[in-house]
């Protein structure tokens, strides 16, 4: 079912400067797969923002952030109008999120010779987990890991380096990235299954109630109409990103 045309109230809430300022997490290599000749981000997330702007009848202006945590921190500071990041309860304290439009599985990589065989075995005393600080899957670990030690560093590359250099017991990450990391480490293994699936969504400020409701309908249409699937195909991330189920 098509999303309704945006009301004047929705347009006012999402375009206070006359354009749609879209916060983009440049650290997600699946959702931002490159840059245009003009330097704008390209990928599934930027295209979703462009489609929202098209529905609103305005231009899109991308506001890039190095990490999702920095994007979330900027909520309520009049820097962006929509933010495209993983929806997490902690972030939802300041941001109204839609349901997910796509999902990315997160799991662990363990080094050669590791006795850890399952995801459940990671949460034990003496296990040190390397993770990119304040990523959506780090926020899941923060809520759920009870016995293992979480070692946080800024950025995905830094979490891999820490895992290798400090000889840690596990590396938490998005499965598509771990598939490339494991090739660099003879004998290393990716544990079967997932400890969470990062829910990539569209967020707006808590004050924008009408806009949040309209964005929720837009995302459901984008999934059901095949738009999200077509963007995943267009940007070459099929099999690594999956369309989220209906809300």
Q: Topology of this structure?
A:
Elements lengths: L7 H7 L5 E6 L8 E2 L5 E2 L1 H13 L3 E6 L2 H6 L8 E5 L8 E3 L4 E9 L17 E5 L3 H9 L4 E5 L2 H10 L4 E5 H7 L7 E2 L5 E10 L3 H16 L2 H8 L7 E2 L4
Parallel strand pairs: 1-4, 1-5, 8-9, 8-10
Antiparallel strand pairs: 2-3, 5-12, 6-12, 7-10, 7-11, 7-12, 7-13
Helix pairs in contact: 1-7
Question: Any key phrases for this structure?
Answer:
D-Maltodextrin-Binding Protein, domain 2; 2 domains; alpha/beta; 25% strand; eleven-stranded mixed sheet; 247 residues; two-stranded antiparallel sheet
Account of the protein in words:
The chain has 247 residues and is an alpha/beta fold. Helices cover 31% and strands 25% of the residues. The chain has eight helices and 13 strands. Strands 1, 4, 5, 6, 7, 8, 9, 10, 11, 12 and 13 form an eleven-stranded mixed beta sheet that branches. It has a two-stranded antiparallel ribbon with strand order 2-3. β8, α4 and β9 form a beta-alpha-beta unit. α1 (8-14) packs across α7 (209-224). The longest helix has 16 residues, at 209-224. The two termini are 13 Å apart. The model has no long low-confidence stretch (mean pLDDT 96).
């Amino acid at each position: 079912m098509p999303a309704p045309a945006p009301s004047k109230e929705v347009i006012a809430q999402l375009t206070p400067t006359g354009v749609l300022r879209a916060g983009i997490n440049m650290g997600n290599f699946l959702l931002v797969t490159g840059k245009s000749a003009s330097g704008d981000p390209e990928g599934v997330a930027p295209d979703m923002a462009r489609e929202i702007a098209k529905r609103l009848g305005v231009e899109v202006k991308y506001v890039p952030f190095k990490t999702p945590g920095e994007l979330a921190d900027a909520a309520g500071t009049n820097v962006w109008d929509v933010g495209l990041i993983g929806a997490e309860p902690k972030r939802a304290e300041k941001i109204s999120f839609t349901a997910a439009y796509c999902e990315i599985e997160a799991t662990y990589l363990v080094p050669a010779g590791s006795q850890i065989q399952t995801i459940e075995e990671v949460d034990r005393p003496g296990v040190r987990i390397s993770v990119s600080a304040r990523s959506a899957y780090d926020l899941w670990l923060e809520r759920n890991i009870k016995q293992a030690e979480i070692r946080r560093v800024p950025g995905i590359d830094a979490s891999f380096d820490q895992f290798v250099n400090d000889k840690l017991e596990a590396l938490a990450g998005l499965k598509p990235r771990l598939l490339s990391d494991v090739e660099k480490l003879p004998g290393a293994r990716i544990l079967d299954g997932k400890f969470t699936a990062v829910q990539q969504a569209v967020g707006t400020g808590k004050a924008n109630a009408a806009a949040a409701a309209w964005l929720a309908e837009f995302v459901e249409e984008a999934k059901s109409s095949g738009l999200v699937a077509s963007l995943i195909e267009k940007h070459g991330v099929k099999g690594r990103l999956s369309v989220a189920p209906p809300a």
